[in-house]
Amino acid sequence: MAVNVPKEAPEVTSLKKDVLDKAENSIINVFPKKIQELGEVLQGSMFSLSDPSQIHCELNIPSQLTTPTNNCNGDPSNELGSKKRKLDTDRTVADVYGNLIQQPDGQKVVPSFNEVIGCNPKLETIVDYLKPQIITVIKHCSNIKLWIQLMIPKIEDGNNFGVSIQEDILSEVTKAESDASSYLDQTTRYFSCRAQMLKKLIKYPHLTDFRRAINEYDEKVFFSFQLILTELRNIYVVLYDVIIKNYLKLKTPRSTNSSSLY
């Protein structure tokens, strides 16, 4: 009984052509330009520091700060809900932000903190540049993965050496995509970790170790971001190299002339 093999839908054919065109354009035209661009950035002013301490920034958190005097003396008209902001003038930042202040009437209040503590401007600039670069690498890897998968021929016995090359390169692209995804997580985690350290400093502003820890953390992250950008450049170099070297096998994994095997 003959089996009717369904024809490929026009929508799928159109999608495959679009994927093939974009992937080949990325490899042949985009990758060399990205290699040059990232190399220039790594050698440029963004990552050129003669002294690691240049990455430090002013924290604007004084080691001692007294809270303003509150003269409401329990006046109900000055209450905010059930929280009364009656503070002693000799309270320090550690008292204010480390603990709730016990009032004579048994209530506890937390004064507000009106000062804005900004991000490290140098690292913020680096993240603003680095994050889109990571996303671009992930998109290129995703498209090239699909490109290779679409070029894998139907399963047959023998003459699969070219297919094994496709699978090896596919593994390399998958690893690159996974690495780039982990880099994206690092850029996001930096701000949340630094915020936690700043919370500690606000609670204990008199401890110099917390100030030093934040500066040391900024230095560490700076070199980490520099390494990430280097790895992104290396991903482009490695993928470009391995794909160009095996371009023929990727495009035609099985030889059409069987006699050439003997």
Automatic annotation (TrEMBL):
Protein's UniProt keywords contain Signal: no
Q: Which GO biological-process labels does this protein carry? A: regulation of G1/S transition of mitotic cell cycle; regulation of proteasomal protein catabolic process
| Every Proteasome activator PA28 N-terminal domain range | 8-62
Q: Which UniProt keywords apply?
A: Proteasome
Q: InterPro entries given for it?
A: PA28_C, PA28_C_sf, PA28_N_sf, Proteasome_activ_PA28, Proteasome_activ_PA28_N, Proteasome_activ_sf
Q: Which residues form a coiled coil?
A: none
GO MF terms listed in the record are: endopeptidase activator activity
Q: What GO terms fall under cellular component here?
A: cytoplasm; nucleoplasm; proteasome activator complex
Q: Which superkingdom?
A: Eukaryota
* Span of domain Proteasome activator PA28 C-terminal: 117-259
Function per UniProt: Implicated in immunoproteasome assembly and required for efficient antigen processing. The PA28 activator complex enhances the generation of class I binding peptides by altering the cleavage pattern of the proteasome.
The record's similarity note reads: Belongs to the PA28 family.
The protein depicted here goes by the name Proteasome activator PA28 C-terminal domain-containing protein
Q: Which gene encodes it?
A: 100640824
